[in-house]
User: What shape does this take?
Amino acid sequence: EPEVTQTPSHQVTQMGQEVILRCVPISNHLYFYWYRQILGQKVEFLVSFYNNEISEKSEIFDDQFSVERPDGSNFTLKIRSTKLEDSAMYFCASLGVVQSDEQFFGPGTRLTVL
Amino acid sequence: DAKTTQPPSMDCAEGRAANLPCNHSTISGNEYVYWYRQIHSQGPQYIIHGLKNNETNEMASLIITEDRKSSTLILPHATLRDTAVYYCIVKIIQGAQKLVFGQGTRLTINP
Assistant: This one.
């Protein structure tokens, strides 16, 4: 069964450092998403991406965040200067077509900012 | 997206049916009811969705009331592996819209 993969599974970084979280969506999918979940809290939408551009972003997704699909297979989330409050699980998801039933989620990357 | 209301937690005995309720009294005519679950800290997993008819798949059944203001997710024979947080979400199917997660129901299956 096709699946979304994410690397690394756990990333530890110092405050102020840049991090790049990587995702490989399902190969024929067209829509891509990043969500995050702070420990003990609900899953929150960050950004959606279609046709090589952002289609929607939340208030959380400020100038410190960016997304890219550099090579047609990977989908990355970059945080330019990490803050302590960026510590969370980050989930990538993908969707095949507009009328598709479900978003497929990856296993997540746990980001710890020290 | 319309909001949903779910009980924060429920318990169910292994082997019994788990019935998870959800209220969505402000649902619009073009909004579907989706259920996802999250086992421990894994990525959310799609379970089922429906518009107004009852739906069944290999994982669960979804019962939607005639007025569509509430629904129930049924896991017919719950196992320990069904212990998870279950999210009821309403959204339109057209357009690749984001999922808006609430707090969900933490379902614990007891041996």
About this structure: The mean pLDDT of chain B is 93. The first strand of chain B starts at residue 9 and ends at 13. The two ends of chain B are 37 Å apart (CA to CA).
